[in-house]
């Protein structure tokens, strides 16, 4: 695998982890939103990753090793179908006739774990990019 391929794979993973982090932050920001434009409380979202074949030039396609390489991409952002949290609060403006307010199905612990996992994935891919860069610089030093 050449340096550009390694950077392309890590770059795609960085982009995917950034999306994952943005969705987790959006979920946390809307944790108490009981009324949305669509009506009803905010529904938590999750990111689905998928492996995508590495798009390379013709020379790269001829190499057998490149056929097994994959990039990461965000396949979709899906809504969480778990039920909303219901709280009895008859004074709330969004309470129904029984005094029940439906709050978003955002779980603080789950979102924090998701954010930490995204951070770790981001750090791992930055380290992989740094390693590829270091190897390329050392190869240049050897050729001098």
Element-by-element helix/strand order: HEHEEEH
Query: How would you classify the quaternary structure?
Result: single chain
Rg estimate, integer Å: 22 Å
SS-derived structural category? alpha+beta
In short:
The protein has helices at residues 3-29, 58-62, 108-143; strands spanning 45-53, 70-79, 85-88, 100-103.
Describe the protein.
The protein is an alpha+beta fold and 144 residues long. It has one domain. It has 3 helices and 4 strands. A two-stranded antiparallel sheet has the order 1-2. A two-stranded antiparallel sheet has the order 3-4. It is elongated. It starts with a helix and ends with a helix. The model has no long low-confidence stretch (mean pLDDT 87).
Key words describing this protein structure:
single chain, alpha+beta
Task: Summarize the SSE layout with pairings.
Blueprint: H1 3-29, E1 45-53, H2 58-62, E2 70-79, E3 85-88, E4 100-103, H3 108-143
Antiparallel strand pairs: 1-2, 3-4
Helix pairs in contact: 1-3
């Amino acid at each position: 695998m050449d340096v550009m391929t390694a950077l392309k794979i890590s770059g795609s993973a960085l982009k995917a982890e950034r999306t994952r982090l943005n969705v987790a932050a959006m979920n946390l920001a809307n944790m108490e939103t009981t009324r949305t434009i669509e009506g009803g409380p905010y529904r938590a979202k999750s990111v689905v990753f998928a492996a995508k074949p590495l798009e390379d030039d013709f020379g790269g396609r001829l190499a057998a090793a490149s056929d097994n390489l994959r990039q990461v991409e965000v396949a979709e952002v899906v809504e969480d179908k778990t039920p909303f949290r219901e709280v009895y609060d008859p004074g709330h403006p969004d309470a129904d006739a029984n005094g029940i307010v439906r709050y978003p199905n955002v779980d603080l612990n789950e979102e924090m774990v998701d954010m930490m996992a995204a951070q770790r994935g981001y750090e791992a891919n930055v380290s992989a990019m740094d390693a590829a860069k270091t190897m390329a610089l050392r190869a240049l030093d050897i050729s001098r």
